[in-house]
Design brief:
The complex is a heterotrimer.
Chain A (H helix, E strand, L loop, with lengths): L2 H5 L20 H18 L1 H4 L31 H36 L1 H16 L4 H11 L3 H28 L2 H8 L4 H37 L11 H8 L8 H30 L1
Helix pairs in contact in A: 2-4, 2-11, 4-5, 4-7, 4-9, 5-7, 6-7, 7-9, 8-9, 9-10, 9-11, 10-11
Chain B lengths: L1 H4 L6 E10 L9 E8 L4 E5 L6 H7 L8 E4 L2 E4 L2 E2 L5 H7 L4 E4 L3 H4 L6 H12 L4 H14 L5 H4 L9 H12 L6 E5 L7 H16 L3 E6 L2 H4 L5 E6 L2 E7 H6 L4 H9 L46 E13 L5 E13 L3 E6 L5 H8 L7 E6 L2 E2 L5 H7 L3 E4 L13 H9 L15 H13 L16 H13 L5 E5 L7 H18 L2 E6 L2 H7 L2 E6 L2 E7 H6 L4 H9 L6
Parallel strand pairs in B: 3-9, 3-10, 7-8, 8-9, 14-19, 14-20, 17-18, 18-19
Antiparallel strand pairs in B: 1-2, 1-4, 1-5, 5-6, 10-11, 12-13, 12-15, 15-16, 20-21
Helix pairs in contact in B: 5-6, 5-8, 6-8, 8-9, 9-21, 12-18, 15-16, 15-17, 17-18
Chain C lengths: L5 H31 L6 H5 L9 H11 L5 H13 L13 H34 L4 H16 L2 H15 L11 H31 L2 H8 L4 H19 L1 H18 L5 H11 L2 H29 L1 H4 L2
Helix pairs in contact in C: 1-13, 5-6, 5-8, 5-11, 6-8, 7-8, 7-11, 8-10, 8-11, 9-10, 10-13, 11-12, 11-13, 12-13
The chains are: A mainly alpha, B alpha/beta, C mainly alpha.
């Protein structure tokens, strides 16, 4: 299982009654997550709208100021406003997360579809291949990739995409197999539909709908991973206003200026939590629509 | 009968029991003032359909109605002492000692991770001071008492390693470990094959003779007729009628009881309506000539007297499966049958008899390892994939689990449109290409199965079981097939809903001259619907022939056993 | 339909599993070998200190001969496999010592960290799952919210927050991992909390499923107490899916160790690996990757075994 499978609840066993479970209605958490996401997207597209200042503007006189009405999140060692920098960093962080997720989903889709559609021999081969990839757990595949192609934003993004691909592939394969063997596909066969018609009408829509959920959940995780690489000095490098890189820069001043690390990290956490909440919300809606 | 055995105190006495759930529970209770009592050595059966409040009754008597349940009663006593307002701790001391519970399927009612011996010993551990050795001895004794003679090895097995009947026996042993005066059995035989069901009922009857009071909860009047002394019929949270079993089964007063009795298919002649007309929404508008023309105008030589052409034929079907261990298993072993036009062939068998595999072979969903299926005189199973597709419109299918046979993304209308139209390409969602002719056909189909147009926009998930099965039948009829293959089409339905669906199938068969291959585990249903019948066991047909002959004078010993085990009302 | 004896079947199963594990290991070695060849530039130059350094052609030739770089690829590959089979992981470019003893020396610290973190994560997850299924909407929402947030916490940020809180402000614990118990607390917590978030979600789901199942109703009807229901009947069911996640948890802990060991300046496999990636010390990275792969494979085998012990249903099949 991967982080995503856990988050999407795909490991759950079927159960008959859930009478003791509190009914899930429209949640406050989902609403908050939605609001924060709107803020993030605005900040990513029009950073000046939420933070008019210059993210790289140096002001040595006001270095290391703690949070105040003038500098909501404080300032860093060069007097740059942390709030401005965090807001302006949203774009690159979201972009990295989205691109990495798309790469992972894309590769996963190719591998998963090959395994799920082309019969037992291909399935066996792809499965063995995935098993081998799973033996490079977590960041390992990403680190190996960076070793080969060198550090940097682009490599880190591709590396995260690559590292998440096996998980996606396995989920997609499982989904395809379960849809293919479902009773409604059989019912369509009995109605005399051709394999092509069944693929278009039943198999693809029912396989791809959950991908939307996976993608939403995945963006949050991808941002966490990519910023971890930046933090380790393998992704985006300071003074770029990228969350992981900002955290890394703040590391030296942990003792004196905690806000330099705290707020960029807070944004990473909030983004990941929002993605999870939204992904779950979408999943619930798909299931009970 | 109660006076002979007991101390005088009834095992349970309930007066004016009201149970509601949640904030609105008081206004709309699930149980609305029911009263009954069970004496030692007596069996009271509470019979009702799903949603009538049966299971809540059982749980309320154990103080397990749930945290958000509101339970009130004028009297609620177990073994002569009041249990109203007991704290959870006091309840715990009574559960298992004053009352035992046996649930439906023991596969999930016994902890799958623990040996059954431990499960049985639990009550002893909780309520007595017996040491481990004494408990073990008592467990062996109990297993012997419920008819598991090889107790010493069975105690170490887990629920999954026992057969359905053995499991149910173990579950009963756990419930009677402390000889409680009252045993509540909530659908104790529902998941079992008919022969095993008869054995479990016999076990319960023997417990009753030994002095235990039994509260039997069931949806099936015929089943409870075997051991109940008295029957109470529960309907929408009220007991509508209560009385001695014999009277209730032969001279019922209340319409609900009568309807339930009428719905039992066993021993009812073919073609006799099972459902009350008012209850079954028989389509009022017989005006759609293309579809529901009166029986005589049906295509082909319909009617029961016309010469019988074979429409579906199976010759020497064999299907093997490889089990995980590598061993091969013959699921179907040389099955042959012929389905004659306009008639019904019933295939009956217990679980594992190969009847579902036979259905899948007949539908050409799996390839036989030997033998072939011929459809309307042409090779079907042996034909090319393309050729099979061309033949498929001649064949419709109705499944047991209708819900899972619908694409969860589609509405009722989309499901039926897909069936009516040519498939994926044409019926884009809400696209302009949808033809009005298709829509008219969809409406005709709905009408034919007695559903209202209002359901078109609904998802199958939001429909009732009976409605789902009607949609499934409508879908099967979309291609105007000559044959319907029904695999356990009514097995998961309430008995009155079952009656409506059986009546609908019968009506459609007469109107359209359909031929039915009807597969079921339920001999009563098979007896009611079939012209010809085939009895399957272990992948083979052990007896086949005219339904009237097979049911009146079965030749094969297995058929005789099966028929002997069928619960029936008559005496 | 010859019925194979149970002992034989178990033996065959174990053999097949072992074969599968060796196959995966071989493919990992192969994949890594060929992936390394994608590195642009001359490996001999990398060995001598990178493209920038002044190297004579003679020195390069000597290095090529020493490392076998002048041989055909296939020969190099086979030689590599042969070396790996004897446990020889080559020689570090940057540290000028043999990789195998170097990494094995680092292994202990990382394993200690991972095992402790796994244990703490299990306890946290189980505690949270049990508490939040006690009943009530509030407990449920709080529990599920805590799990989601915990699962979203990046190791590097959590570590920073813990250091600020416990070392800088409260001064209770050292910000740098010192030998001894005090130095282990923050790194273990950093690794355990996010993992507990993931495990907790899984455990709560399966705990609820167990609590709502008919066998628990049966147990209650026998007079079993709430505590008995939980400890005798439900916990094992809750633990099963979490056990099956152990392989994944191992990977997540190793990834976390890379970050945590760096932040807390703790010697270990993760930190060595990161340093090696930074200076592009290929043999060390390859060696670390192989060791982790072996660890992962062992972990999946152990998981299999643990599942069989915890779930008798798997044994009879």
């Amino acid at each position: 299982m991967s982080d995503l499978e856990i988050q999407a609840g795909l490991g759950r066993s079927p159960r008959a009654n859930r009478q003791h479970r509190p009914p899930r209605r429209f949640g406050v958490a989902e609403a908050l997550a939605g609001l924060f996401t709107i803020f993030l997207v605005t900040a990513a597209l029009f950073p000046a709208l939420v933070a008019p200042g210059d993210p790289l503007g140096i002001d040595p006189l006001s270095a290391f100021q703690s949070p105040s009405p003038a500098h909501w999140f404080g300032t860093d060692e060069s007097g740059r406003d942390i709030y401005t920098r965090v807001s302006h960093g949203t774009g690159s962080s979201l972009l990295i997360g989205t691109v990495a997720t798309l790469i992972g989903l894309g590769l996963g889709l190719v591998l998963g579809t090959l395994a799920g559609m082309l019969g037992p021999i291909v399935d066996f081969t792809v499965n063995r291949f995935l098993e081998v990839l799973f033996a490079f757990p977590g960041l390992l595949l990403a680190l190996l990739f960076i070793l080969i192609f060198g550090p940097g934003v682009a490599t880190a993004t591709v590396a995260v995409g690559l590292a998440t691909a096996p998980g996606y592939a396995r989920i997609i394969r499982g989904q395809l197999l379960s849809v293919r063997s479902s009773a409604f596909v059989e019912a369509a066969t009995v109605l005399g539909r051709s394999p092509g018609q069944i693929l278009v009408r039943h198999i693809l829509p029912n396989t791809l709908a959950p991908l939307f959920v996976l993608g939403t959940l995945g963006i949050g995780q991808a941002i966490v991973w990519a910023s971890a690489l930046s933090y380790l000095g393998l992704g985006a490098a300071p003074p770029a206003a990228e969350w992981g890189a900002m955290l890394s820069a703040g590391r030296t001043y942990i003792g004196s200026a905690w806000w330099m690390s705290f707020f960029p990290g807070l944004f990473i956490v909030l983004t990941a939590v929002s993605a999870t909440a939204l992904g779950r919300g979408i999943e619930r809606r798909l299931r009970h629509a | 009968m109660s006076d002979e055995t007991g101390t005088g105190a009834p095992a349970v006495r309930v007066r004016n029991l009201v149970v509601g759930f949640g904030p609105g529970g008081d206004a709309d209770p699930v149980l609305n003032g029911i009263s009954f009592e069970v004496a030692p050595g007596e069996c009271l059966a509470i019979v009702g359909e799903s949603g009538s409040g049966k299971s809540v009754t059982a749980r309320s008597l154990l103080g397990l109605a749930g945290e958000n349940a509101r339970v009130s009663a004028d009297e609620l006593s177990l073994a002569g002492s009041d249990v109203r307002g007991l704290t959870e701790q006091h309840w715990r001391r009574r559960r298992g000692r004053d009352v035992g519970l046996v649930l439906q399927d023991a596969l999930v009612s016994l902890d799958p991770l623990r040996p059954v011996g431990r499960e049985i010993a639990d009550s002893l551990r909780l309520h007595t001071d017996l040491g481990a050795a004494a408990r073990h001895a008592r467990v062996l004794e109990l297993l012997d008492r419920v008819g598991l003679p090889d107790a010493a090895t069975e105690v170490r097995k887990r629920a999954g390693e026992l057969s359905g009947g053995q499991r149910q026996r173990a579950l009963i042993a756990a419930a009677i470990a402390l000889d409680p005066p009252l045993l509540i059995a909530d659908e104790p035989t529902t998941a079992l094959d008919v022969t095993v069901q008869a054995q479990i009922l016999e076990l319960l009857a023997s417990l009753k003779r030994a002095g235990t009071g039994i509260l039997l909860i069931s949806h099936d009047l015929a089943v409870v007729g075997r051991i109940a002394d008295r029957i109470a019929v529960l309907h929408e949270g009220r007991i509508v009628e209560q009385g001695p079993a014999h009277e209730m089964l032969t001279r019922p007063d209340h319409p609900v009881t009568r309807q339930m009795l009428a719905a039992i298919p066993v021993d009812k002649p073919r073609g006799l309506r099972l459902s009350v007309r008012a209850a079954a929404p028989v389509s009022p508008s017989r005006s759609s000539p293309a579809l529901t023309s009166p029986g005589l105008a049906s295509p082909g030589p319909a009617g029961r007297d016309a010469p019988r052409h074979t429409v579906l034929e199976a010759v020497g079907l064999v299907k093997r499966f490889t089990r995980p261990g590598g061993a091969e298993q013959l699921a179907v072993d040389g099955v042959s049958f012929r389905l004659a036009r306009g008639t019904t062939l019933g295939i009956v068998g217990e679980s594992g008899s190969g009847k579902t595999t036979t259905a899948r072979l007949a539908l050409a969903l799996t390839r036989p390892d030997a033998g072939e299926v011929r459809l309307l005189g042409q090779a079907f199973s042996a034909a090319s994939a393309k050729q099979r597709r061309l033949l498929r419109p001649g064949l419709g299918a109705v499944y047991q689990d209708a819900l899972s046979s619908f694409d969860p993304r589609l509405s009722v209308e989309q499901v039926l449109r897909d069936a009516v139209g040519g498939g994926a390409g044409r019926t884009g969602r809400g696209g302009a290409s949808v033809s009005t002719a298709d829509r008219r056909r969809v409406l005709q189909l709905l009408d034919a199965v007695g559903l209202s147009q209002g359901l078109l926009g609904r998802r199958p998930r939001s429909l009732s079981g009976g409605q789902r099965q009607r949609v499934s039948i409508a879908r099967a009829l979309a291609s105007e097939p000559q044959i319907l293959i029904c695999d356990e089409p009514v097995s998961s339905l309430d008995v009155t809903v079952q009656a409506q669906v059986l009546d609908l199938l019968d009506e459609l068969q007469r109107d359209r001259g359909l031929s039915l291959l009807f597969i079921s585990h339920d001999l009563g249903v098979i007896q009611h619907v079939s012209d010809q019948v085939a009895v399957m066991r272990g992948g083979r047909i052990v007896e086949a022939g005219d339904a009237a002959r097979v049911f009146a004078a079965p030749e094969h010993p297995y058929t005789q056993d099966l028929l002997g085990a069928v619960p029936r009302i008559g005496f | 339909m010859a019925e194979v004896g149970r002992g034989t079947r178990v033996f065959r199963g174990a053999l097949a599993r072992l074969g599968g594990a060796l196959f995966v290991l071989w493919m990992v070695a192969t994949l890594t070998f060929f992936a390394i060849r994608l590195i642009p530039g001359d490996p001999a130059e990398a060995i001598l200190g990178g493209p920038g350094s002044q190297t004579s052609p003679e020195a390069l030739a000597a290095v090529r001969a020493e490392y076998g770089l002048d041989q055909p690829v296939l020969v190099q590959y086979l030689a590599q496999l042969a070396r790996l089979a004897t446990g020889d992981l080559g020689r570090s470019y940057s540290l000028n010592q043999d990789v195998a003893p170097l990494l094995i020396g680092q292994l202990g610290g990382t394993l200690l960290l991972a095992v402790l973190a796994l244990g703490v994560a299990w306890l946290l997850a189980l505690g949270l799952a049990t508490w939040s299924t006690r009943g009530g909407r509030v407990a449920w929402s709080v529990g599920s919210g805590l799990e989601i947030v915990a699962a979203a916490l990046p190791h590097f940020w959590l570590a920073t927050a813990l250091i600020v809180l416990f070392s800088v402000w409260l001064g209770w614990l050292p910000p740098i991992s010192t030998p001894g118990v005090a130095g282990l607390v923050l790194p273990v917590l950093t690794l355990a909390v996010p993992l507990a978030g993931f495990l907790g979600q899984i455990m709560r789901e399966s705990l609820l499923t167990a609590l709502e199942s008919p066998f628990v109703l049966s147990a209650r009807a026998r007079g079993e107490s709430e505590r008995g229901v939980r400890w005798v009947h439900s916990i094992r069911h809750a633990a099963l899916p979490a056990i099956s996640l152990s392989g994944w948890a191992f990977g997540s802990l190793i990834s976390g160790a890379v970050v945590v060991e760096t932040i807390f300046a703790r010697p270990g496999l993760g930190r060595t690996l990161l340093n090696a990636v930074t200076v592009r010390d290929v043999p060390v990275v390859v060696g670390a990757v192989l060791i982790v792969a072996v660890g992962y494979i062992l972990m999946t085998l152990l998981t299999d075994l643990a599942q069989r012990i915890a779930d008798p249903r798997l044994r009879t099949r």
